[in-house]
């Protein structure tokens, strides 16, 4: 199907990652009569799982909760590697007949809402042909997440240009990188770094993880014995559903206990780390973060691979600050120099909500920083626009599934009442706070470019699956939503002055 400037769809989905694929499946199932197109800037589906190609890339959530509610995860691995997750997403596309709806190398540049037509006009650049096209859509569902897929984050390291070896960022991993028998320094302490350390140590001469600040790290079995048993006894569908509920409850209990009793959680994690590490290892130097558990996301290591690699002597951790790069490695503030042939800057990601798409409503540019998020999925004053942001303290997809169900229910409500547009109105006197209450560096660097959240529902960006399940399964209409039919809508949706600026 060739897209033209006259194409009209009911829903345009931005992004063919785990969120966009999920939204397309729910639309196909719940609203089979509605037309939709998925546009993806990259040349393949999968989003994050297709983008990252560094050694060992895997999930840090169990796939019983990270997978879709409607499609059982049948692989034995619960903490799964990227190729298995990609296979799962490709299966979802094929099983639901979504291939013909996805258009690759289509990057959305801007979207303009016209109240007179109650439609979005979306401008898209096609990388395959170099042309700019337009699609008219009744709704936009933005499933692009909040990462910048074009460029990762790397601090300015003094002397970087002096280093004679190779510097690599995990987001741009060279396919031909040979690290066999090489000395590797991985800068960072997050999920990417703790994945790279054991994966690269299999071939490298030695791998050093250089961290400025430690991270909480907990081991989990790569395979969930209970999940595999339940699937065997109850079948894929029922076994998966029961495991999913079990794991959601376990995640929530662990999070709540950690937040309520941070000192106890800190001691428990330390004891686990101490048991996993060699006798006499300086646990408090390298595994004792200065913040409480879940102020930042905990890192999961499947089958204790990180600790096993440290015990083997193939890898080590150094906690220090970087003074500068040298010709042969990294000079630390302590005066020690780490020699390296390859330096991997696992220093985090940049964030770009809604993929950097410029939105305008009736000719006025939407200011994300002045908007407030309604039910975790709509921007105040912006009609017929949904965005998908998952959890930071649990599996991303748990939230996405709830948002997709609510989105479909909202469409059904509008159809049954003859409405063709809806937007949320925020009280201008409402107190707000940052959208994400999360101390991770990549989040803190970008919060001033994000929308805000309120202090109470429906304006809270909830991070609780149980709270969201109640909120999003409730009534669609409330006192902050404004619905309109063709002919009786105002010329411009009223955001109470919070979402649009001239």
TrEMBL record:
Question: Does the keyword Metal-binding belong to this entry?
Answer: no
Q: Per its Swiss-Prot or TrEMBL entry, what cofactor is needed?
A: FAD
Please provide the record's keywords in A-Z order.
FAD, Flavoprotein, Monooxygenase, NADP, Oxidoreductase
Which GO terms fall under molecular function for this chain's record?
flavin adenine dinucleotide binding; N,N-dimethylaniline monooxygenase activity; NADP binding
Q: Which InterPro entries match?
A: FAD-binding_MO (IPR051820), FAD/NAD-bd_sf (IPR036188), Flavin_mOase-like (IPR020946)
Q: Name one Pfam family in it.
A: NAD_binding_8
Record's family? Belongs to the FAD-binding monooxygenase family.
Q: What is this protein called?
A: FAD-containing monooxygenase EthA
Q: Which organism is it from?
A: Gordonia alkanivorans CGMCC 6845
């Amino acid at each position: 199907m060739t897209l033209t400037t006259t194409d009209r769809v009911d829903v345009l989905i931005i992004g063919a990652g785990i969120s966009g694929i999920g939204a397309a499946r729910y639309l196909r199932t719940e609203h089979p009569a509605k037309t939709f197109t998925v546009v993806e800037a990259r040349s393949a589906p999968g989003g994050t799982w297709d983008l990252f190609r560094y050694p060992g890339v895997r999930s840090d959530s169990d796939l019983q909760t990270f997978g879709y509610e409607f499609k059982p995860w049948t692989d034995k691995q619960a903490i799964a590697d990227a190729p298995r997750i990609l296979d799962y997403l490709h299966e979802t596309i094929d099983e639901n007949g979504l291939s013909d709806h996805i258009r690759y190398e289509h990057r959305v540049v801007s979207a303009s809402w016209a109240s007179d037509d109650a439609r979005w006009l979306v401008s898209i650049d096609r990388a395959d042909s170099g042309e700019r096209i337009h699609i008219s859509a009744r709704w936009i569902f933005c499933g692009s997440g909040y990462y910048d897929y074009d460029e990762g984050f790397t601090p300015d390291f003094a002397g970087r240009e002096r280093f004679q070896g190779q510097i690599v960022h995990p987001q741009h991993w060279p396919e031909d990188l040979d690290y066999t028998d090489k000395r590797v320094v991985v800068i960072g302490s997050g999920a990417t770094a703790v994945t790279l350390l054991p994966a690269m140590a299999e071939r490298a001469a030695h791998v050093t993880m250089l961290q400025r600040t430690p991270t909480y790290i907990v081991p989990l079995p790569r395979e969930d014995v209970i999940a595999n048993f339940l699937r065997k006894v109850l079948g894929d569908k029922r076994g998966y559903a029961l495991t999913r509920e079990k794991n959601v409850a376990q995640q929530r209990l662990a999070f709540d206990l950690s937040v309520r009793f941070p000192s106890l959680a800190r001691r428990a994690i330390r004891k686990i780390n101490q048991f996993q590490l060699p006798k006499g290892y300086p646990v408090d130097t390298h595994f004792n973060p200065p913040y409480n558990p879940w102020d930042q996301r905990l890192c999961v290591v499947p089958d204790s691979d990180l600790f096993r690699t440290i015990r083997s002597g193939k890898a080590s951790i150094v906690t220090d600050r970087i003074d500068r790069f040298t010709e042969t490695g990294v000079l630390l503030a302590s005066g020690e120099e780490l020699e390296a042939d390859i330096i991997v800057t696992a220093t985090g990601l940049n964030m770009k909500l809604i993929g950097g798409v410029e939105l305008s409503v009736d000719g006025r540019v939407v200011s994300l920083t002045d908007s407030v998020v309604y039910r975790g999925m709509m921007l105040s004053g912006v009609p017929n626009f949904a965005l998908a942001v998952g959890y930071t303290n649990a599996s991303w997809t748990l939230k996405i599934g709830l948002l997709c169900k609510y989105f479909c229910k909202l469409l059904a409500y509008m159809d049954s009442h003859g409405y063709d547009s809806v937007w949320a109105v925020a009280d201008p006197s409402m107190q707000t706070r940052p959208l994400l209450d999360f101390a991770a560096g990549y989040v803190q660097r970008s919060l001033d470019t994000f929308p805000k959240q309120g202090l109470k529902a429906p304006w809270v960006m909830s991070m609780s699956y149980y709270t969201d399940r109640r909120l999003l399964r409730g009534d669609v209409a409330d006192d902050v939503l404004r619905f309109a039919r063709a002919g009786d809508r105002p010329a411009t949706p009223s955001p109470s002055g919070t979402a649009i600026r001239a």
